[in-house]
Specification:
There is one protein chain. By secondary structure, the chain is an all-alpha fold. Helices cover 49% and strands 2% of the residues. A hairpin with a 4-residue loop joins strand 1 and strand 2. Helix 3 packs across helix 5. It is extended, with a radius of gyration of 29 Å.
């Protein structure tokens, strides 16, 4: 590194100018407090809720007119290397912006304020051969059903969901519990979601008025708690021995575990979970 006579080195670079407008904006806003015009600030805040829409319009212009073509091989390459975002992320913003712009042009005053709120509406934005789409009808349904200040992505999804019972739900599971579920599901030849459904007794032919066979599973926002009867614990312990055997868990012959112990199997969902994929 060469030190110049004025004590500045030639490796020094000025701060990135990319974020300078934002720094200037912060300085301007704070310097005017408490003399800011409250009504103007409120309008600016409300407009900023639609920044995702502006992003989507610009992204669509780059994509449609291939403005990237002299520097990047395709739109995906542009997203990853110019914007540092995945192509899927950018395409999602474009879709959300199209939803919002359609609603603006349909004279709605209440609009989705985020990509997450707009995306449940995307499937209704398809225009049919007559030039009609369900988007305005569905958004009207949302704003008539939910107070404006309570509109969230989840509530929009629930309002528009035609089959709420079949929609996947998100459950937070602690890391150790999830790892155990993965291991058990893998041993049973199932995905984690399939394993959980079998564990709690859910099946495709379960009628609405039929109670699940197993009620020992509790799902909450913090963890998954699985409680077994003493008989079930003995069975699971024996199964762990089988799956840890040198054959890497491949059951080629019928185990004799249950014949030796002569334990009742009725209502033990875990047994069905483990052995259902195999033929005995």
């Amino acid at each position: 590194m060469h030190i110049t006579s004025d004590f500045l080195d030639n490796c020094w670079q000025p701060p990135e100018s990319e974020y300078q407008p934002l720094l200037d904006f912060e300085s301007d806003i704070l310097s005017e407090v408490p003399h800011n015009d409250f009504s103007i600030l409120t309008q600016k805040i409300k407009r900023s809720f639609l920044d995702y829409c502006r992003q989507g319009i610009m992204l669509e212009a780059v994509r449609r007119y291939r403005l990237y073509k002299h520097t990047y091989k395709d739109f995906a390459d542009y997203c990853k290397n110019a914007l540092g975002r995945s192509p899927f992320y950018c395409q999602t913003i474009i879709k959300a912006a199209k939803v919002c712009m359609h609603l603006i042009k349909s004279n709605f005053q209440t609009l989705p304020t985020s990509v997450a709120q707009a995306m449940p509406l995307w499937k209704f934005a398809k225009v049919d051969s007559y030039g009609n789409c369900q988007l305005t009808e569905k958004w009207s349904e949302v704003i008539e059903s939910i107070p404006v200040h309570q509109i969230t992505a989840a509530k929009i999804q629930e309002t528009l969901d035609e089959n709420p019972e079949d929609r996947a739900k998100q459950v937070r599971i602690k890391g150790k519990a999830y790892k155990l579920l993965q291991e058990k599901a893998l041993a049973a030849g199932m995905s984690v979601s399939e394993y959980l459904e079998h564990l709690i007794g859910v099946s495709d032919d379960l009628s609405n008025d039929q109670e699940p066979e197993c009620s020992d599973v509790r799902l909450d926002e913090q963890a998954v708690h699985v409680e077994y009867t003493p008989e079930q614990q003995v069975i699971l312990a024996d199964l762990d021995i089988v799956f840890k055997s040198p054959d890497d868990g491949c059951l080629t012959q019928q185990p004799k575990l249950f014949l030796k112990r002569n334990l009742p199997l009725q209502g033990v969902v875990s047994v069905a979970v483990f052995f259902e994929p195999y033929s005995f």
